[in-house]
Amino acid sequence: MIEVLAARQQWCRPGEPILWCIRSHRNYLFDVEGLDEKGKPKKRWGARAAFGAGDAVGGVIGGVFDAVTGGDTDSDLKDSPPSVLFGPGPNCMAVTEFSRIPTGEDRAYWVLTSHRLGLLTFQDVAEPAAGEAEESAGLLGGALKFGKGAMKFARDVRDIVASKPEYEPGVAVPVPEARAHLEIQRPAIADIGAHQRKLGRGYQTGKPWYLRVQFTDGSGIELSPSPTEKPVQRLVAMSHGQI
To answer: With contact defined as beta carbons under 8 Å apart, do 19 and 113 qualify?
Structure first.
């Protein structure tokens, strides 16, 4: 992943290893007291507790959930939210810190090191000229130009890889420019573990597993949803330098 190389070269301090790098998504689902699932203030703060919603995301509760999602047929089922912010109230650390995250950044990644958690964006330093870009559209693009059949496609890819490597030997690999928008030091992180979140019937996976990064005030963020626990536990081990 070229972003890891860019982060290591431009952002990391000497002797600061990267433990993992996870793609960030611009939209976060909120599970914060006093806020709805989009992060807007609730009209009635105590509604969630009154209905006993438990761990339901964003205070969407009971039968109301079907009305919001349009039912639970296969065509209406949604993917698990890629990220969830949770916390005890609107003024918690997670909401305060993440409110500074810029919008419209597609190439953003959460990067955890031995010292801190950062949100980094990456931008290509220079775009290739129009003629050059058309000539080298990449391995997949080149292969598709030559043929549509499966066997011929495989031969095309093999020939392109053999004759036109992605990076020339002895030439420095171009890396994008890294910029940090948010940094949270490790002492402010109370725990990193696996958490199974109850989403309800409107999602393809009703109880996905998340990598849960919890701050010292009880708030935090959940990342990288998985239908099974094993991939998340691997990220947990990586978070603690065990892998």
So the answer is: yes
Q: Could you report the per-residue pLDDT of 20-34, keeping only the tens digit for each?
A: 999 987 778 899 999
Q: Edge to edge, what strands does the sheet with 108-113 contain? A: 18-23, 108-113, 116-123, 177-185
Side chain identity at residue 8, one-letter code:
R
Taking the CA atoms of residue 184, residue 218, residue 192 and residue 210 in that order, the dihedral angle to the nearest 10 degrees is -110
Strands 83-87 and 29-32: parallel
Q: What angle do CA 113, 124, 103 make, to 5 degrees?
A: 70
How far is it, in rounded angstroms, from Cα 207 to Cα 228?
A: 9
Q: Which residue has the tokens 């559209």?
A: 137
65-85 pLDDT tens trace: 222 333 444 557 788 899 999
Distances (CA, A) of 22 to 25, 46, 192: 10, 34, 14
Which three-class secondary structure string do you get for the chain? Answer: CHHHHHHHHHCCCCCCCEEEEEECCCCCEEEECCECCCCCECCCCCHHHHCCCCCCHHHCCCCHHHHHHCCCCHHHCECCCCEEEEECCCCCHHHHHHCCCCCCCCCEEEEEECCEEEEEEEECCCCCCHHHHHHCCCHHHHHHHHCCCHHHHHHHHHHHHHHCCCCCCCCCCCCCEEEEEEEEEHHHEEEEEEEECCCCCCECCCCCEEEEEEECCCCEEEEEEECCCHHHHHHHHHHCCCC
Are the CB atoms for 89 and 33 separated by under 8 Å? Answer: yes
Residue 111 CB-density burial (10 A; 0-12 exposed, 13-18 middle, 19+ buried): buried
